[in-house]
Amino acid sequence: MSELTPFVSHVSCTSCRRQYPADALHTVCPDDGRPLEIVYDLPSLGEANPGRTWMRSDAPGMWRYGLLLPISPPEALPSIGWTPLESLAEDGFGGLKVFLKEEGEPQPGFGSNPTESFKDRGIGMAAAMAHFFGVSRLSIPTQGNAGDALITLGKSLGQELYVAMPESTPAPILERARRAALSDSTLELLLSPGTIREAGALLRQATADIDTFSVATFAEPGWRIEGKKTMGLEIIEQLYWELPDVIVYPTGGGTGILGIWKACQELLALGCVEGTPPRMIAVQSAGTAPLVKAIKTGAEDSVAAEAGETLATGLNVPYGIGHKRVLEILRTSGGTAVSVGEAAIREEMGRRLSLSPEGAACMAVCRGLVDQGLAEAGERAVMINTCSPAKYA
Ligand SMILES: [Zn+2]
Questions:
Q1: CATH of domain 119-214
Q2: How far does residue 19's CA lie from ligand 1's centre (Å)?
């Protein structure tokens, strides 16, 4: 059996910071039910691998970050990540320099995400970690894209899957999942009313007597954070190892906020970048905005909201066990959470046809950052285009 990379130190609770051994299989923190994350011994890693010699630039896609990831990739897993960071030349940002991380449609000369979504990073890492720990039966409730990613990437590793998604999941994703389930007796597809919350309840009911391992957002021990971390590492590498001033991130559960923040912190600790970590700005849909509400009221955690209606289905997440940590990061970084209405999302999708609804929400936020005093002209902001809009057509 392969081993964890040599500088993985332990697993830590993102809330109470209690530590657990990294070579055992965990779910959430048994003390408080909060998400766990993987911690590296960065001083030793840096000492043994000066400069950026911890990288493995010849590894496929996101695995180029070598010793800053918990394992080496399983051979059967398709390449994920190493997507382009595009500098947007257009005006309309009040002098802000905006960069777009393109996680959707493949671009010539770069790597790509197999299901044309940023979810491939976290889910790919989770499938690989499950494979590493010898776990072969996985379950996930999803708003769509994470389930799509697990069906492709989990299946590449021969995993048995239980995937639950809302009946209202965009048709291209739903149809692909249906077709996959029809031809594969080890893929169980469950359809629920409502949102990911109802999908989760249905999944718990359906798998009550079955031994499955949940790779739902933050239910697994920091695997998806490590996958999403590669997005932050790529952004910084593509900015020639400089930190951006602002990250504008579409936030449902918030794995990406934790992941990108972790990338910044680890590179700072290794001395591979200098300066101040970016202000993290979480973008939500006006219909479902628990983080925006928590920021406004000064609350330490979000309160489960009622799910609204939005084109940006990936943002229709009424609550998350990671929201407490997300809020801590938003505040520590000097960032905030903002919501975007449907009209603005539609307008941005019409302006730039490669945008997903969640990407369009980020673009709308970028246009207002300088006006709202959340950024200054000349600063650098990075926004995420989460996936190909064809997945919503
Ligand atoms: Zn804890």
A1: 3.40.50.1100
A2: 9
